[in-house]
Amino acid sequence: MACVTIPEKKWRIDGAGEIEAFLKPFGIWYERWNVERGVGPNAPRNAILAAYAPEIEVLKKRGGYVTADVIDVTPELPGIEAMLNKFNKEHTHAEDEVRFIVKGSGIFHIHPQSGPVFGIQLEAGDMINVPAGTRHWFDLCATRTIRAIRLFREASGWTPVYVDGGVHGQFEPVCFGPQNINGGGVKLESGLK
């Protein structure tokens, strides 16, 4: 399940309801989907899309999306470093970035217009959208593996628009397992009471 950290405040937010409530004012949707579909995370792409077709259709109507696909990233992917370097710097998009994680894990860092940067670690079963124009960047977790359903409003997808003077270099690209919360050694307090 996802977790959110706010390093500046040393907060960690767990629990689907708490995460959803925290993200809502930023226009970010968070949902937890059941991954027990009779199809494993390594199934062919068309089987994955078929297994999650009801949820995909709801999201298409909700956000005006017209197409969905499945992206696979593994350490063996040719050109993985160049691909990851496109997304690990602060940027925006002209359209929403919508992801449902089928396998693996990664972290979106969000840089809101007001308030501190926060990270959202996602794993299998987590669905998120990052609204168009939101400053953010993305890193994979330690396994450097992710499989996700993506939705787009334009069949051609989107490209990153990099932010001059982005703050991504001030944050370590680590995930929030108990051994490496906020890069290690920092105890985060629950952010929501």
Give structural attributes:
single chain, 193 residues, alpha+beta, ten-stranded mixed beta sheet, globular, disordered C terminus
What does this structure look like?
This protein has 193 residues and is an alpha+beta fold. It contains four helices and twelve strands; from the N terminus they run ββαβααβαββββββββ. The chain has helices at 16-23, 45-51, 53-63, 80-87, and strands at 3-6, 11-14, 30-32, 67-73, 91-92, 97-111, 118-123, 126-130, 135-140, 146-152, 161-162, 189-190. A hairpin with a 4-residue loop joins strand 1 (3-6) and strand 2. The radius of gyration is 16 Å and the shape is globular. Residues 178-193 have low confidence and may be disordered.
What is the compact description of this entry?
The chain has 4 helices and 12 strands, in the order ββαβααβαββββββββ. By secondary structure, the protein is an alpha+beta fold. Strands 1, 2, 3, 4, 6, 7, 8, 9, 10 and 12 form a 10-stranded mixed beta sheet that branches.
Give the biggest beta sheet.
10 strands, mixed
Order of helix and strand elements from N to C terminus: EEHEHHEHEEEEEEEE
Q: What is the number of beta strands?
A: 12
Q: Mean pLDDT, rounded to whole units?
A: 88
Number of discrete helical segments: 4
Low-confidence stretches: 178-193
Give the overall shape, derived from the CA principal axes: globular
The proportion of residues forming helix, as a percent range, comes to: 10-25%
Structural class: alpha+beta
Q: Tell me the strand percentage band.
A: 25-35%
Please give the alpha-carbon distance between the first and last residues.
19 Å
What Rg, in angstroms, do the CA atoms define? 16 Å
